[in-house]
C-alpha cells in the first residue's frame, strides 16, 4: 500500500514538474513575443504614427476663392498676370512672355507642416514646345517678380519647381517635365542654363502636361526632414520624389506659387493649396536642442556629400558603360589571377606527397 501511495506521489510530482515547466516555457514565449513585437514596432515606426494633422485655412487656397486678390478681404494676394476663375487660380495663360503668382499675406510660424498642391499644366504646345513651368515657395521674400519661374533670383527659403522645358542640351538621363527642389540662402543663384542642377537637392520625372486626371504635389517638412512626393498617374497613390534630412528652414516665411512663360507657353493653374499643421511628439531633450539651435538662415546639412552623390548619380550613359566595362574586366582579371595562384599552390602541395 505504501508502495502504491509512493508511486502516486511520484507521478503527481512529475506532473506538477511538467506543468510548471510548461507554464514557465509559455511565459518565456509570451515575454519574448511581446518584446519582439515592441522592438519591431519601435524599429518600423515613423512620423506618421506620431503625428496629427490639422488644416490651416488661413494658409490654404481652395474653391470658391472668395476675395482672393482683393485688398484686406483675403489671405492671398495675386501678382502679375495671375487671375482667378471659377475653377482655378491661373498663374499664366497659354501665351508668350507672361508671369504670375499668388502669395500668402500671413507669415507661417509652424515648425512642422505639410502642403498638398492640386495643380494643372496644359496648353496647345506639342512635346518640347511648351514652357516654362511653375513653382511652390516657402520664402522670406514675397510678391517679387523675377526669372525663377516667376519669382526673384537669389531667394531665401525653399522652392519646389515643376520644370517643363529643358534648357540644357545634354539632358539624356533626365526626362522633362521634371520636379526639382532647391534651398536658397539669399546668395545662391538658380542656374537656368543647366536647369538648376548645381544647386538642386534632388528631384524626379513628372509627366504632368495635358493629363485628363488630377495631378498633385506633396511637400512635407517634419523634424528638419524635407519630403516631396507626387500623384500624377490617376491612381490616388503618392510616389516618392525626394527625401532629405537636415533641411533647416526658419519660421515666419511666406507660402506662394508662381509660373512663367517665355517664347514657349502653357496654362499653369493652381486648383488648391492645402496646408496642414503637423503635431509631432517631441521629447524634452529634442525641444531643448531645437531651442538652442535656432534657425535664422536656410541651409542643408551635408550639402557637399549630397552634391558628390548627385555627381556620381548623374553620370552620362557612356561613362556608366565604361565604368561597368572596366569593373567587369577588373573582376575577370582578379579571377584569372586567383585561378593561376590556386593552381600553382595546388601543384606544389601535390609535389610534397611524392
Offer a few descriptive terms.
alpha+beta, 17 strands, 7-stranded antiparallel beta sheet, 354 residues, transmembrane, membrane, 8-stranded antiparallel beta sheet, Lectin_leg, 2 domains, Jelly Rolls, Intracellular_Lectin-GPT
Structure report:
This protein is α+β, with helices and mostly antiparallel strands and 354 residues long. 28% of the residues lie in helices and 31% in strands. It folds into two domains: 12-45; 49-313, Sandwich (Jelly Rolls). The protein has helices at 2-44, 284-292, 303-313, 317-351; strands at residues 51-55, 76-80, 83-84, 89-92, 99-104, 113-122, 133-139, 156-163, 178-185, 200-205, 215-222, 225-231, 239-245, 247-248, 254-260, 267-280, 299-300. The strands form three sheets. Strands 1, 3, 4, 6, 11, 12, 13 and 16 form an eight-stranded antiparallel β-sheet that branches. The protein has a seven-stranded antiparallel β-sheet with strand order 2-5-15-7-8-9-10. Strands 14-17 form a two-stranded antiparallel sheet. The longest helix is centred in the N-terminal third of the chain and has 43 residues, at 2-44. The termini are far apart. 28% of the residues are buried.
Content of β-strand = 25-35%
State the helicity in percent bands: 25-40%
Main sheet record: 8 strands, antiparallel
| CATH architecture assignment of the largest domain | Sandwich
Overall outline: globular
**H and E order:** HEEEEEEEEEEEEEEEEHEHH
Assign the CATH class of the largest domain.
Mainly Beta
Cα end-to-end separation: 79 Å
Number of domains: 2
Number of helices: 4
Radius of gyration, whole Å: 31 Å
CATH fold field value of the largest domain:
Jelly Rolls
Mean pLDDT: 82
Number of strands: 17
Determine the structural class based on helices, strands and strand pairing. Answer: alpha+beta
Which regions are unreliable across 5 or more consecutive residues at pLDDT < 50? 33-49, 308-316, 350-354
